């Protein structure tokens, strides 16, 4: 069973940038995704990447601003977030997709989740 630990959240002003990291054991055979959940809202898909890192998929609200990448040698997936807006404020979660190839926006397709890291964007 893969274990994921997310980090890198914090407080940033509108227009700023943050990079989230998620380190995982048993990493290279899984696809990986990032989701977020704002207070009082449903969990929202952010981005996904396949097991070899050559294909990505983004939610509409972050396209052009966020970039997902992975370093299999370091067992780490990243989410580079630029041009942050107050609407990006949420707890961000990384998740592992067991087939390695299905870049999916549906939470129930992911078999393991990290603990979440808080991102707050001030206006």
Descriptive overview:
The protein contains no helices and 11 strands. It has strands at residues 4-7, 10-13, 18-24, 31-37, 44-49, 56-58, 66-71, 76-81, 90-97, 112-113, 117-122. The strands form 2 sheets. Strands 2, 4, 5, 6, 9, 10 and 11 form a 7-stranded mixed beta sheet that branches. It has a 4-stranded antiparallel beta sheet with strand order 1-3-8-7, with no helix packed on it. A hairpin with a 4-residue loop joins strand 7 (66-71) and strand 8 (76-81). The protein is globular, with a radius of gyration of 13 Å. The mean pLDDT is 96.
The total of beta strands comes to: 11
Strand content: over 45%
Shape: globular
The main β sheet shows up as:
7 strands, mixed
Q: Tell me the helix content.
A: under 10%
| H and E string | EEEEEEEEEEE
Q: Could you tell me the mean pLDDT? A: 96
Q: Roughly how many Å apart are the termini?
A: 40 Å
Structural class, from helix and strand content? Answer: mainly beta
The tally of helices reads 0
List keywords for this structure.
single chain, 123 residues, mainly beta, seven-stranded mixed β-sheet, four-stranded antiparallel β-sheet, 11 strands, 0% helix, globular
């Amino acid at each position: 069973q893969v274990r994921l630990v997310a980090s890198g959240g914090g407080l940033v002003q509108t227009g700023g940038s943050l990079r989230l990291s998620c380190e995982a054991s048993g990493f290279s055979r899984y696809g990986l995704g990032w989701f977020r959940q704002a207070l009082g809202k449903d969990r929202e898909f952010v981005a996904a990447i396949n097991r070899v890192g050559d294909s990505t998929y983004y939610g509409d609200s972050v396209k052009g601003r966020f970039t997902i990448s992975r370093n299999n040698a370091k067992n780490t997936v990243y989410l580079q977030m630029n041009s942050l807006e107050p609407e990006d404020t949420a707890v961000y979660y990384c998740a592992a997709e067991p087939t390695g190839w299905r870049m999916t926006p549906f939470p129930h397709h992911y078999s393991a989740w990290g603990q979440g890291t808080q991102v707050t964007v001030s206006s």
